[in-house]
Amino acid sequence: MVSTTKKALFLIIVFSITMITPSCLTTKTQVGTFKETRGASYTYSKGKQFWIFWGTIPVGRTHVNTPGTGNCEVVTRFNLFDVCLSGITLGVVSSYTIKINTKRQDQLKGNPERVIESGKVPE
Predict the structure, then answer these.
(1) 16-21 contact pairs (CB < 8 A, 24+)
(2) SS3 label, residue 9
(3) Contact assessment for residue 38 and residue 64, using Cβ atoms and an 8 Å cutoff
């Protein structure tokens, strides 16, 4: 009887670790001069990509907007909701969260590279 209880506890712990660990999966890809550009970062666009059959077939296409300059950071994340969805459906349906970050820049006097740091407009 003790061995059955230990086996059940072991399976619960292994299952919990398996479900929690992928929730940390994050991929960040900088595009263009995002890293070198000065300014405060903010979320430009968000979306979710759904997959079926253990991530082999995408369900539709997720269209997330990107800034016209092309300078952005694409963050793909497998968060808690995605883990729960994948766990409940045993992986048959899964999803990833996609977020596009860019940096705020104030364009003054035709100079798009000029950044206002203090919030005041220089004269």
Answers:
(1) 19/83, 19/87, 20/83
(2) helix
(3) no
Give 92's contacts (C-beta < 8 A, 6+ positions apart).
52, 53, 54
The residue among 55, 77, 69, 76 whose CA lies nearest residue 102 is 69
Does the predicted model carry a pTM greater than 0.85? no
Residues 82 and 14: their CA atoms lie apart, in Å, by 19
User: pLDDT (tens digit, 9 = 90+) per residue, 92-103?
Assistant: 888 888 888 888
The whole-angstrom separation of Cα 11 and Cα 18 is: 10
63: which 2 tokens?
């269209």
- Phi/psi region, residue 111 (left: phi>0; alpha: psi -120 to 50; beta: rest), is beta
Q: How far apart are CA 88 and CA 96, in angstroms?
A: 15
| Cα Rg, the chain, nearest whole Å | 21
**Which residues does residue 26 pair with via DSSP β-bridges, in sequence order?**
77
- Residue among 18, 81, 80, 72 nearest 45 (CA): 72
